[in-house]
Amino acid sequence: MHIVVCIKQVPDSAQIRVHPVTNTIMRQGVPTIINPYDLFALEEAMRLRDKFGGEVTVLTMGPPSAEDSLRKALTFGADRAVLLTDRFFAGSDTLATSFALATAIKKIGETWGKPELVFTGKQTIDGDTAQVGPGIAKRLGLMQVTYVAKVAEYDGAEGTVTLERRAEGGTQVLKSKLPCLVAMLEGTNEIRRGTMADALRGARAEIIKWSAKDAGVEDLTKCGLKGSPTIVKRVFAPSPRAEKAKFIEVAEGASLPDALIEEIFTRQPALEADLTELARGF
Amino acid sequence: MSEPKKTPAPAAGGRAATKKELPEHFKAYKHVWVFVEQERGQVHPVSWELMGAGRRLADKLGVELAAVVVGAEGETIRNAVAESFCYGADLAYVCADPALTDYRNEAYTAAMTNLVNTYKPEILLLGATTLGRDLAGAVATTLLTGLTADSTELDVDTDGSLAATRPTFGGSLLCTIYTLNYRPQMATVRPRVMPMPDRVEKPMGKVIELPLGITEADIVTKVLNFIPDRESSKSNLAYADVVVAGGMGLGSPENFQLVRQLAQAMGAEYGCSRPLVQKGWVTSDRQIGQTGKTIRPRLYIAAGISGAIQHRVGVEGADLIVAINTDKNAPIFDFAHVGIVTDAIRFLPALTEAFRKRLSAHSRDKLAS
Hints:
The complex is a heterodimer.
Chain A: E1 2-6, E2 9-11, E3 17-18, E4 25-26, E5 32-34, H1 36-52, E6 55-61, H2 67-76, E7 80-84, H3 94-112, E8 117-121, H4 132-140, E9 143-155, E10 160-167, E11 170-177, E12 180-184, H5 196-204, E13 208-210, E14 231-236, E15 246-247, H6 256-267, H7 269-280
Parallel strand pairs in A: 1-6, 1-8, 6-7, 7-13, 8-12, 9-12
Antiparallel strand pairs in A: 2-5, 3-4, 9-10, 10-11
Helix pairs in contact in A: 2-5, 3-4, 6-7
Chain B: E1 32-36, E2 38-39, E3 42-43, H1 46-61, E4 65-71, H2 75-86, E5 91-96, H3 105-119, E6 123-127, H4 130-143, E7 147-148, E8 153-156, E9 162-168, E10 173-178, E11 185-189, E12 206-209, E13 222-228, E14 242-246, H5 256-266, E15 269-272, H6 274-278, E16 299-303, H7 309-315, E17 320-325, H8 332-335, E18 338-341, H9 344-368
Parallel strand pairs in B: 1-4, 1-6, 4-5, 5-12, 6-11, 7-11, 14-15, 14-16, 16-17, 17-18
Antiparallel strand pairs in B: 2-3, 8-9, 9-10
């Protein structure tokens, strides 16, 4: 079987800093990583490949430097890497991104065989929208199952897949038809280290680079800023509250915890009685 | 694999236009809709929170607020419709069909896109739950319109456009997003971000029904089973009165128990900031912030949390925020009401003890009286 895994290279958000004066993101020196949620998708895809045979193609859209993340995916054990990179894609929102990725997946299908499954992570850590996966599914007419905790069964002959999906208040067990887009939940597996052979192959392998034209995009107005219905009008840091926090300090020898509790109950008088009521239950 | 069939005419001035030039065929789109999410007999409370937000938008625009209820014919749907009016809806659109009993993307997307294409709302709001996010992404792509995920503020601009604000860049900044020239303007909002409006007893209003238009035979995905969560693994974090949370300032996973102990002494729920989940110290159902739970407790105590925007937006609805941090310049003191500059690791056990004493002393007084 052929599986396509969509990944994204993202800034390591734990290390993002905002410029104190200009309120802009300081990108310099921020390391990039594969979106952590995508690693669960990649591992799940490789496990299916290992069990049932076939190939895993990783796909990303981004600047030329996104090659690093694809190479990393190859060292984990992916079979092929495609980088969709073109200035026409700049400024894409989730709708334009899903258009570009869906077009590339179609082309990947024509070139190396139609994928039965397309995997994505639950969401990215920079955009946090969880919209691109569903967007790809709808554009390609794939079945769509998100928040998947487990691929329980795969039946290539019957063309079905059984998935356990995280729902509100429980787990939904769904049987769907292939081809299907699966957005994997975090914590579902652990990415493998990759073999020495994979590491060598990953370092040397060719990353396939496609422009919009190479990927088969005919209508450039569906790409980038032009293809994005949403417009970001304003980016800003939140205004601090008018009054800063009141700092509680006590004289030498006095109890800081008691002073804090006093402050809390002075501000929230009803809370004391309610908490006392609760504490009696303990 | 096939391309979607429907392609609306492109907007005048191109999608990238930063000016509102709404194409003629979108001008008929009016009114604000709120998707009322219900599953297994329960309406998700986020639906009523959105109804409150939708009411404010509709009033500002001078249009009607509609509830959209999708599901299997029966008592649950009838109750959901009746309740919608009590929470502020002017009318309700209903799509009822046995094929909508359990949530499945195909059927729900079909129901929602039919309703939108037939009755043309200008704004469509959904809860950012696992169901709402799955549905919103599919509906927006099918309609080829804009969608803003996890909005923390919704407003109407002077030109009547929806201004949806959300954290960006992993929660370090906020941005305001518009869908100027496409309709409907869609947004999702996480549970507890908007305040719960008061419920006011009201009679049923106008209800408009639309058939689903597809049958079970057309739907490929089948639900085999539903396994409810065990009661013990559920946390009441989002709806708790008092919440205690810890962050990286705790220094080690072992020290997180100090947070749990304080929470226990107070009868509170406990939570954590995002890095602790990423490090695997605490499970993700305990994460507080934009990508975790949004809380609105009467008292929130944050220990060793620096207060990144992504955390801030999840706790700003708390009545009283107490922050404990060694760094007096930490951003959390910009939005906390009460601050203590000290090491949480040493302070938490003392605070736990002090709370225990204070609360049990009162219990004894009460018992004696």
